[in-house]
Specification:
Blueprint lengths: L1 H21 L29 E3 L11 E2 L5 E4 L5 E4 L5 E5 L7 E6 L5 E5 L3 E5 L5 E5 L1 E2 L2 E2 L3 E6 L5 E5 L10 H6 L4 E7 L4 E9 L2 E6 L5 E6 L4 E6 L8 E5 L4 E8 L5 E8 L2 H6 L3 H8 L13 E6 L5 E7 L8 E7 L2 E6 L5 E5 L4
Antiparallel strand pairs: 1-26, 2-3, 3-4, 4-5, 6-7, 7-8, 8-9, 10-11, 12-13, 13-14, 14-15, 16-17, 17-18, 18-19, 20-21, 21-22, 22-23, 24-25, 25-26
Helix pairs in contact: 1-4
């Protein structure tokens, strides 16, 4: 019996050693505060279950949403297309083909062009006629790893994220395990064609939102459960600070509405199993060599937050069943409707909300 146990232990040790040696990541230990309880303003409710989902047949993985001045709605899809929902409610393919691979973040500029973060191709411009131009796909000679989200300031300058410099859309979850931040937050000036680096070493730089008055811009760090603010005007221009910390989930897209509020989509609630691993780099390295199917999985719990300009949470919208809305990656309010996209779910969610 003892010999059998010894062989089993030796076998497990050999397998673990092989996985450790062949792992694609070199993790570091990380520590997190306990997530805030879902009570008070964060209390679970059924608000998102009242959403109506359109475009299920047409759109697979519409991660973000944008609306033009005429009221046409746009989203990308996993098959590399950009879709337009016309004011009559009809969906049609608006743009497709090279260099579109996987459209992610979207915004509309003053000229009616659609500015697109393509996860593989960089920052793009799509004209109202559907013509596509690559604005920028690298910085200091280094190609972007995963161009993610975008917003446009009142002065026309474009703010966008390169979520990770070390991974791509195919394997970006490895960065969550590795714990080494490589995300970048950038600004592109369409007048000069120049790109500036605003912040680096971000824990998966994701959603971007410029304040209504243009005084600051926000960027979400998905794998740190926090949001940073970069001041664009006033005495603090160029400085950054923490706007939200220790969020109840993985922050993805964020947007500003016409009343100065922000809407934040949380991909999923926090994962205690994943966070408990973060202080154990050896175990994380072994896990990184295993198929992602064996990793802790996100909970299908739809969650969107409404916040004021100072980062105070005013309201939370939930679908704890995950049946109507889950894995929400964007939330944009236009008029009295909140539009929601998902990286993996089909269609676009639409929920009537109060405009104050």
């Amino acid at each position: 019996m003892m010999r059998l146990v010894a062989w089993i232990v030796a076998g497990i040790t050999l397998i673990a050693g092989y996985l450790w040696w062949t792992s694609p990541i070199r993790p570091v230990a990380r520590h997190f505060d306990s997530p805030p309880p879902l009570q008070g303003v964060l209390s679970v409710n059924s608000a998102l279950q009242r959403a109506v989902v359109e475009g299920r047949e047409e759109i697979a993985g519409g991660e973000d949403i944008a609306m033009d001045a005429q009221g046409n709605l746009y989203t990308g899809s996993a098959d590399g297309k950009i879709w337009q929902r016309t004011t009559s409610g009809q969906w049609r393919v608006f743009a497709q083909g090279n260099p579109l691979v996987r459209p992610a973040g979207l915004a509309v500029d003053e000229q009616g062009n659609l500015i697109v973060c393509d996860a593989f191709s960089g920052l793009l411009r799509v004209t109202p006629q559907g013509d596509i131009t690559v604005l920028v796909d690298s910085f200091n000679g280094e190609r972007f790893g995963l161009t993610d989200d975008v917003d446009i300031a009142p002065d026309g300058r474009i703010y966008f994220t390169d979520a990770t410099a070390n991974y791509t859309m195919h394997n970006y979850r490895l960065e969550a395990l590795e714990g080494r931040p490589s995300g970048r937050f950038m600004r592109y000036d369409p007048t000069t064609g120049e790109t500036d680096l605003l912040l680096d070493d971000l824990y998966f730089a994701n959603g971007v939102a410029v304040a209504k008055d243009g005084s600051f811009v926000l960027v979400n760090e998905t794998f740190a459960f926090q949001t940073r603010r970069v001041w664009l005007s006033g005495e603090r221009a160029g400085q950054s600070d923490m706007w939200q910390h220790n969020l109840p989930g993985f922050p993805d897209g964020i947007s500003a509405d016409d009343q100065g509020h922000f809407w934040m989509a949380l991909y999923a609630p926090r994962l205690p199993a994943l966070e408990s691993l973060q202080s154990l780099p050896t175990l994380k390295r072994i896990l990184g060599a295993l198929p992602e199917a064996l990793w802790p999985k996100p909970v299908a719990h739809g969650l969107v937050l409404k916040l004021d300009a100072e980062g105070n949470i005013l309201q939370s919208l939930h679908d704890a069943t995950g049946e109507t809305m889950a894995i929400v990656t964007s939330a944009e309010r236009y008029g009295d409707t909140l539009y929601m996209g998902s990286l993996v779910r089909p269609g676009i969610g639409m929920l009537t909300v109060q405009a104050n």
